Amino acid sequence: MPDVASLQQFEFFSNFTLYAGAKGIHRMISNVVILDHEGFDGNYTDFHEGDFVITNLLYAKDNPERILPSFSKLISIKVSAIAIKSIYYHELPKEVVELAEAHSLPIFFFDSVYIEDIILNIVDYLRSSEKNSYLENLVDTVIYTETPETALKQLLSHCCPDNRHYVSSLYLTNPSSKDKLSIQRTLNRKGLLGKQFIDSAADCFFLMYKKGVLMLYFSQDVQTSSEIMKKWRHILSVSNLSSGNYQIGVDDEMLPIRQIDIAIRRSIYTNRCCGQQGHPKAVYSSMHLRTLMLSLSENRYANAYLTDLCKEISSYDRQQNTRLMETLYAYAGCLFHIDKTAKKLTQHPNTIRYRLNKIKSILHCTNDFEFQMIVGLISETLN
């Protein structure tokens, strides 16, 4: 379910001014309704928790004392927010503002936009959010369960055009943003979310997934890596996502559509590799074992095992006031070169050797191969 704050992605919201209740802007919206005659007769049976309420306060045009009891009733119902069109009122009585602040109920004033347009935008948004949530759950089922046959068929029926047999996946996030609203706003303006974008050059399905956007490009035939990347550049350009501070992981090796789960995982893991390496873009074919290591981060046993090892090292650091964990990550980042690690940490190489030997003893590693494997896994899956 979307929250009140997510409405800022729409153009109509630029005409809104938050008047009170700022702490409640993350209330969930379940519906959009109009407050009209209820202000006169006091019958609020058609209002429910999560309603985004729109009104022009006609019922209180010459009687401002009617506002407080009506808003009190809406607060008791737990509506998500109230938006007031600035026709009869441009401000509210002090006691109404205090009530809204006390209950963290967002109250907005707006003008220069039709109420009908707001309703249509929010209703469409709620429907698309519900569909996106359904598709997101399908993707989770497909990539995280052992036998996803039913979910796989359902996902393909929603996103794969007819006569398309191969798929490539791209996962795009915005590391500078704590949420996905900036990306969502861009795609909403183009009307692309949850839809098949089909033109003479590419067939692509767009889906908001976790904190980014998942794009699935479908083709009749297998294409080379260079052909796939050319298509992705076209898709990103047309969807206005080719520029910006985005982090992009691309599966540049096409798979049969029944392996769409693997294609999706490839792009997600490659995206995460971008973050670890500090690069804005990366392709799956250049990641080698990194994506395999990242897949272990979703394995409950592997995650618990590696976390326990880190706890042992961190515990030693706290007790002895050492910097073994820092050295471990630096050693992995320098591809197991002691001299480079020493330079990075401004230490003598012998100091690094001493620290690494101490880590080996804590982890009970019997040889260098085992040690480097564990260091690499910790660095890739837990960092």
From TrEMBL:
Pfam family, one: HTH_30
Family matches, as InterPro entries: CdaR-like_regulators, PucR_C-HTH_dom, PucR_C-HTH_sf, PucR_dom
Domain PucR C-terminal helix-turn-helix per the UniProt entry, residue ranges: 324-365
Annotated Purine catabolism PurC-like domain residues: 11-125
Domain of life: Bacteria
Family annotation (PANTHER family): CARBOHYDRATE DIACID REGULATOR (PTHR33744), DNA-BINDING TRANSCRIPTIONAL ACTIVATOR ADER (PTHR33744:SF1)
UniProt-recorded name of the protein: PucR C-terminal helix-turn-helix domain-containing protein
